[in-house]
Fold:
Amino acid sequence: MLRDAMPDLNVYARRQAEWLPVEFEPSTEAALEQIFTQFETQLYIPFADPVRYLTGSVEQRGLLQNQRRFFLQRAESSMYALRRTIVNFRGRIEQMQSRLGSVTPDADGLKQFILLHYGFESDQLEQLDVGALNDREAWDEDYEEDEDDEEVEAEQQEKRQQLRRTIDLAIARLQSDPVEARRVYSLMWSACDNDLMQLQEIQDLLADEFVKDHKREQVTRKVRELVSQGKKVLLISIFSDTVIDYYRYMTQDEAIANRGIGMAIGSTKRYYPSPRDRSLQVTPHNALRSGRQRTGIKRQDLFRLFAPAATCRTVAERPSPDEEVMVLIGSETLSVGQNLQDADYLINIDLPWNPMTLEQRIGRIDRPKQHPCENLYIYYANSESQLLRQASRLANLNKKLIGETQTGQDGVIQGVPNVDDLGAS
Structure:
């Protein structure tokens, strides 16, 4: 409305949504199709809240749905993120089987296992690299908890007490029914076997894609094209490890490196260059231009390098032309409160489930600018089939929120059949 009322005032540009097509190999498309359909319902994820096996609510626990959702988000984000999630899931499942194998298949054994799993007892059975199996490491969203919030701590304590009561009641029931206790034990064991088999199948299907990430290559080509035209580009991902992987890859591109690229995540993270390599420590804010690597720089200094017009109050604060970076890639830590409107191009490596988060991303560049700008270009990178799957999932999520489910006569959720059917987001 402001633009229409005052057309000569350069305040806000028009938003132009663009799809950045990615062409995967047929085998990769088949694997991703399997992940987003079959594996969505057939992965048991037994280490997620295993008390559900004792209470009989195997499919109803919210944590299980969250784990599945994160698995699908990781698959959509990057091949590196998916590979690390498979490693994490496999490690957690193997840990669970190892613990189950160390107890008897009865109520007493299940009690010993379940109390150990939830941390009510110390791990006397085995010494594992717990850091390598940390859930937060597998799908970091730069979420920061307020550990000093007494109300949150009180709520967590109450949940722990309620969980312990649930465990005690379930174990008491199983002690009077040894046949049921053995069945529960066998169910957990078979769930572990099932998931290990399916994770191996995913890894085998995507073996080549883990080496050559076609989506990462396509995004890099687009960034190279834009910076060669003198355009600044902002890229955002849900996950920090996707950000690190893309940053490391793009710094190897001579055209991008010569024009400068920066990276911003929420905290220091570990990165695994290959499955056999040791992890590297990656600091939150880094920049590279023309062979000059700057690691561990201050957050505001990085923003000054990328968006001097928006962040520098005086000319003296501005970096020299050969210090500026044309590309900034970051996690959701960039989505709130940053003035990055020197850029007119945003590439979404993945899409957040919360539409307000997407709006916050766009808001980093959709601000009053000091340079003429007619359009903002907002890209989403993925294959057509992935785009349609994402659109179908979001459309049906919206239906659920308003109390209506988009189903056919057979009760099956209907997908979005054609990319041309998609409207503006």
